Amino acid sequence: MRKLQVQGVHHITLTGADRQTSIDFWEGVLGMPFVFDQPNLDDPDEGHLYFDPGDGRLITIFTNESRKPMHSRTPTDPGCVHHLAFNVSRATWLQVTERLEARGIGHSGPKDRGFMDSIYFKDPLGLLIELATYKFEPPMGASHADVMIEAHRIRVEAGDHHIAEVHLADAIERLVERRQSTLSDDRAPKDPYRRG
């Protein structure tokens, strides 16, 4: 038996209501360019809109002019999507509260998640959306996931409840030590300010 190894999210498809609501939210609120438009090839009564969330992958929406929003919150039963999270820059994240409130969009307020900051709000159909920004940049040649797994190991070793900034900083240091060679015989911390 062998795995079916995935290599990233190809796209996520959501069931939308009317076409304009989708365009107004995904492009008009979240700034995702509307990049492709065609009929739903499995249902001639539906449209299929494609948006770029910023990484070249796709969020797609099935639309139908006869569908109307029906939830104040989409179902969270087992097997349902709880929320979608999108990455934003730190500069944008610092503006999210103000920009949501300027549109009259209710939100959770900022949430500190230890390794990232988040804010939650609902799309016009009741789907919970999270905008998140990492508190760290991975070292060259490493991914956010590389830092996260190393920070998790450090957190568990320390017996701490959740990942915090100290675990992230130590994880980045460990990754740099493993990935980058040095001419020094000893890479241990030093004190160049000590007085003899």
From TrEMBL:
Residues 8-134 form the VOC domain. InterPro entries: Extradiol_RC_dioxygenase (IPR052537), Glyas_Bleomycin-R_OHBP_Dase (IPR029068), Glyas_Fos-R_dOase_dom (IPR004360), VOC_core (IPR037523). Pfam families: Glyoxalase. PANTHER family: RING-CLEAVING DIOXYGENASE MHQA-RELATED, RING-CLEAVING DIOXYGENASE MHQE-RELATED. This is VOC domain-containing protein.
